[in-house]
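Work Package 4 report. The design task specified in the project plan requires that, given a folded chain encoded as C-alpha cells, an amino acid be chosen for each position. We show below one input record used in the internal validation round.
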C-alpha cells in the first residue's frame, strides 16, 4: 500500500491535503438527468433509447455512471488504475454511491481484468470498486465472471472489439438480478458482453454500473 506512505496530494491538480480535493471534486462532470433509460447517455429529454444505443443488442437492462469521462475524470482514473493509488477506489465508490441509488439486485459483480493487466497492476480496478460499493450498498459482491480467450463479438466494430478484448463466461449460476461494475463505460460493448454472459449463467436482469462514462458530443 504505497499510497499510504506518500503525502496526500490531489491527483488532478496537485494541491496538498487529499487525493481528490474539494475543488476538483466539485468540478467533476457529474452526469445529470435527463438520460437515456437504457444506456445512461445524457440526452435533451428523457428517452427509452438514444442515438448511441438504438438498434444495438445490449444484454443489460440499464447502464449508469456517476461522472463523464473528461480530462479531470481521466486523470483521476489513471491515478487509480495505473499508479495503483488504491484509496481512490474508495473515493470513486463514494462518488458513485452519492449519485446513483443502490441497484435493486441480489448481488454485485465486476468485469474481470485480463490476466496480463492484472499482473501488471497487481489489482483489478473494477473489482476494487465493486467491493467498495458492496460495502456502501450492503450488497454481496460475487466473482461471477471470468474471461475467455479469443472471444469475438459478431457485428461489432473494430473499436468495440478492441475495448472488449476477449469475452466472458459465467462462473457457475448467477443470481436472478445482478449489477456488473466497471471503472469506465466506453462504448458499452464490455458491459453488454458481461451482461450477456451473466444472462447465459441464469441472471434474468443485469444492470451496468461504472464510475465514469465516455460522452459523445454533437
Ligand atoms: Zn484538486
Ligand atoms: Zn441510449
Amino acid at each position: 500500500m504505497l499510497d499510504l506512505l506518500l503525502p496526500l496530494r490531489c491527483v488532478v491538480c496537485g494541491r496538498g491535503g487529499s487525493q481528490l480535493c474539494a475543488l476538483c471534486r466539485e468540478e467533476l462532470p457529474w452526469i445529470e438527468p435527463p438520460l437515456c433509460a437504457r444506456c445512461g447517455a445524457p440526452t435533451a429529454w428523457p428517452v427509452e433509447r438514444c442515438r448511441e444505443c438504438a438498434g444495438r443488442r445490449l444484454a443489460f437492462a440499464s447502464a449508469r455512471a456517476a461522472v463523464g469521462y473528461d480530462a479531470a475524470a481521466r486523470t483521476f482514473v489513471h491515478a487509480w488504475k495505473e499508479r495503483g493509488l488504491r484509496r481512490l477506489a474508495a473515493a470513486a465508490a463514494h462518488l458513485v454511491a452519492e449519485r446513483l441509488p443502490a441497484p435493486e439486485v441480489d448481488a454485485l459483480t465486476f468485469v474481470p481484468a485480463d490476466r496480463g493487466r492484472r499482473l501488471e497492476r497487481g489489482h483489478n480496478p473494477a473489482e476494487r470498486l465493486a467491493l467498495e460499493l458492496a460495502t456502501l450498498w450492503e450488497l454481496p459482491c460475487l466473482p461471477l465472471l471470468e474471461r475467455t480467450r479469443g472471444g469475438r463479438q459478431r457485428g461489432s466494430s473494430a473499436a468495440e472489439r478492441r475495448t472488449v478484448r476477449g469475452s466472458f463466461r459465467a462462473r457457475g449460476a448467477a443470481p436472478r438480478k445482478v449489477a456488473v461494475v466497471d471503472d469506465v463505460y466506453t462504448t458499452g460493448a464490455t458491459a453488454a458482453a458481461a451482461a450477456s454472459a451473466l444472462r447465459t449463467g441464469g441472471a434474468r436482469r443485469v444492470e451496468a454500473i461504472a464510475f465514469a462514462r465516455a460522452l459523445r458530443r454533437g
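The pocket of zinc ion (ligand 1) is lined by residues 10, 12-13, 15, 21, 23-24 (CB under 6 Å). Validation will be extended to a larger panel in the next phase.
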